[in-house]
Structures are given as structure tokens and as C-alpha cells.
Input
Amino acid sequence: MPTILGIESTAHTFGIGVVKNGKVLSNVKHTYTTESGGIIPTEASKHHESHKFEIYFEALTSAKTDEKKIDAIAFSNAPGLAPCLLEGMKFAKELSNKLKIPLIPVNHCIAHLEIGKTTGAKDPVMLYCSGANTQIIAYAAGKYRIFGETLDIGVGNFIDNFARYAGIGFPGGPKIEQLAKNGKYIELPYKVKGMDIALSGILTNLKQRLEKGENVKDLSYSLQETVFAMLVEVSERALAHVGKRELLLGGGVACNSRLQEMCRIMCSEREDLGETKFFCPERGFLVDNGAMIAFLGEIMFKANANVFSYENLDKLDILPKQRTDDVIVSWR
Output
């Protein structure tokens, strides 16, 4: 069985994981953070460059393996922030050249979905909510297809933007979740348009309320209750549309316990339509991580899908604008 090392570097996290035969042997990461403001792509890429060897050797040690036993290297190829993606690809190429092993560029969004197999989900609708990505994805007619998404900004960026405006710092999600525990509901705009959602108007409304001196705890609670209800609504509509009976959460925002609770309640309330199961990977697989890149890389390596020889690395480049539904999943 091949041993695959995966490198994640799409945004604020630099992570490396090792996978063999579908089993995660290690999953090590380090995240770029700020006390105020948001992510600065060039600074995040410098963070990745400064921590790459530390993370690499820690991942190998944690996996109880040696770099000479690695059969291929997978890395996050798209979508993401170009400076961060380039740093990960550069390191992957360095290792490929050094070890004389192939490279496998993988789609970050698909990796979030595929690592969901560790939960036991077989054929789910996935609510994928991270920084820049908010999508309802399901596998249908030979490829992953997007059945709904944000029309403007991703839910993670939406939350971080509000947190930054409130002076909370980056990343804002965990801090907003804590503040929300002591807040009460204030009515906010609710923007669902068919299978899609829109968040920019809600963000403007929240900022205006903050400027008027409204309680940030109440605004945090109302933000979660309103936007998560929108996400649950379009997820349920997707389940009905494609006729599936599994909902899988993915992405960093899925770490939020209230979002998980609302999804779990929705699935349980659909029992009259047939049992709908709810799945959510452990936290380490929800946030950006190298294990999910290695996990998908192993699937692709076994199918010889998109595998580049170390002798042909000059043909390899990043595809930062690639969409999830541009990826035909030929290894399925």
C-alpha cells in the first residue's frame, strides 16, 4: 500500500499529513493569526515558508515513518490565495525532486469532501463552509456538482469581516461563537434565493448596528442564528432535490457547535421522509489540514489520476480560480 504525504497551504494554515491505506498516520499544522485585522496573503506565505520544515519533520515523526518510505506527495493546488498556494507547491516540488517521487495536485474543496469518508458517510450532500467557500455539493452523474452556494462572500470571510470590524482579530469564528453564548436575538435580514444565499447585505446591517452601539454579544448570537438557519434551509432543499439521505459538514466554519446542532436537528426532523443521517468529521479534519490532502492524494494515486512524475514538474502550475464542479472525479 502506498504512503502519501499531503501538503496544505491554501490560506492561513500550513499543514502536512501522512496517509496509508485510507488511515491517517499524522496530521500536523501551524496557523497564521493576527491580533487585529485579517489575513495578509504575503505575510501568510512567509509564515508557511518559515514553518514548513518544522511541520514536515514533525509529521514524519508523528507518523512513525521516514521520508524514504513516502511514495508520492499530494499538495493543495486550488482554490486559494496565490502566494500561499505557491509556497506549498514550491515545497512539494523541492521534496519531489529530493526524493524522486511523483506529485499529485489536488482540489482543496474535494479534499474537504473526501475526508468525510472517515465518518462512515457513503453518498452525502455536503454543506461545505469555510473562509472563501460556501457551497452545497453532491456527487451526481459522474462528478461533484454544486447545487447551491453564496452569491457574494463565503461564510467564513463574512464572520471574519464582522469580527475584524468589531476589533476582535483573526480568525474571528471561535471568538464569535464564544460571544454568542451570552447574547440574545435581534432580527437581521434573511437572504435565501432559491438554492443560494447572500451575505453582504447582512454584513452591512451588522456593521451599522455595531456603529450604533448595539451589544456585540447580541449581534454575534443573531449572526449565527440567522446565517446558520439559511445554510440549513438550502442544505435541506438540496437533500430533497437529489434524493439523498446523508448530510455531511465540512470546512472550518463547521467546527461551530451551534451549526452542528442545527444540522443535526434538521436531519432528525426529516424522519417522516425517511431517515436522514448527519455526519461531521472530527475538528482536526474540518479546519484546513494536510491529512485531507494526503487522503485524496492516495485515492488519485491509486487511480493514476493527475499524477505528475518528478521529471515533469515544469508542467505543473497552480489553478487558483478552479471551481469544485470543474473537477471530473474520474477515480470514482
